[in-house]
Amino acid sequence: MAVNKVTPKISVNVIARNEEADIADCLKSARLLANEVVFVDMESTDRTKKIAEKLADKTYSHPQTGYVEPARNFGIEKCNGDWVFVLDADERITPELASLLKEKIHQAEDGVGAMAVARKNINFGFWLKKGGWWPDYQVRFIKKENFIDWPEQIHSFPKIKGAIINIDVPFIHLAIKDIEEMLERTIRYSEKEANLLFGAGRKTSVFLIIRRMLGEFWRRGIKGQGLLDGPAGIVQVFYQTFSVFVTQARLWEKQVKEGKNG
């Protein structure tokens, strides 16, 4: 087992747009782990950047793209730490996780390139334990010299050189606070996802829309037992199914428009 004589430096990178209500608590939690907090603002029109400038060590700007993945490479590049934890504005690092990760970077074998940390998803104030939302491992703690690339697709995972180990002590994800936020997110993400699918030449139909909705309902609600996770779990299962419908409907709409213009 490799033993590091020199304490590795840790950076936490946060990328956000219009998150003035959450950004302070996010950055304060980042400080529990980080020697350096690096914030990237995506053209916020509220006070997000001003708040972050007071709490982060470095702040940068990146063009607004509607979701964070296109800025991941930029954010990680700006970090000087040996290890980088990637954190979103609606996520929180806990004292327990910070303490554990500081130990793990000393214990990690030389071949370890990243750590996939369990994520505790909180919707409407309730912890989602079923439906595939727990432990929801996310590759977020990365040895910078082993980082290769972060694809720009929504909800993509980074490409890492070396082994990835799981960490069971979670970080917190305050995913959905209310129905309004849920619907706004669906509108924003479904448009981006449909554009990516359309650009890749993917097609859909009424049959495929129904099939994909039923597949999501089965995976989340039945196989993953999300329907047994209380009211919040039931709402989440139907929401995920609805999200699939909206994305597929947008893709169908693009196909129709292409046919009319072709």
Quick take:
The protein is built from 7 helices and 11 strands. By secondary structure, it is an alpha/beta fold.
Radius of gyration: 20 Å
Task: Write out the CATH superfamily name of the largest domain.
Answer: Spore Coat Polysaccharide Biosynthesis Protein SpsA, Chain A
Q: Give me the count of strands.
A: 11
Sheet with the most strands? Answer: 9 strands, mixed
Q: What is the total domain count?
A: 2
Strand content is 15-25%
CATH class value of the largest domain = Alpha Beta
Mean pLDDT: 95
What is the name of the CATH topology of the largest domain?
Spore Coat Polysaccharide Biosynthesis Protein SpsA, Chain A
- The end-to-end span amounts to 62 Å
Walkthrough of the structure:
The radius of gyration is 20 Å and the shape is globular. The chain is of the alpha/beta class and 262 residues long. It has 7 helices and 11 strands. The strands form 2 sheets. Strands 1, 2, 3, 4, 5, 6, 7, 8 and 11 form a 9-stranded mixed beta sheet that branches. It has helices at residues 23-30, 48-55, 72-77, 95-107, 179-199, 206-223, 230-261, and strands at residues 10-16, 36-41, 58-61, 83-88, 91-92, 112-123, 126-127, 138-143, 147-149, 159-160, 163-176. α1 links the parallel β1 (10-16) and β2. The chain has 2 domains: 10-176, Spore Coat Polysaccharide Biosynthesis Protein SpsA, Chain A (Alpha-Beta Complex); 179-261.
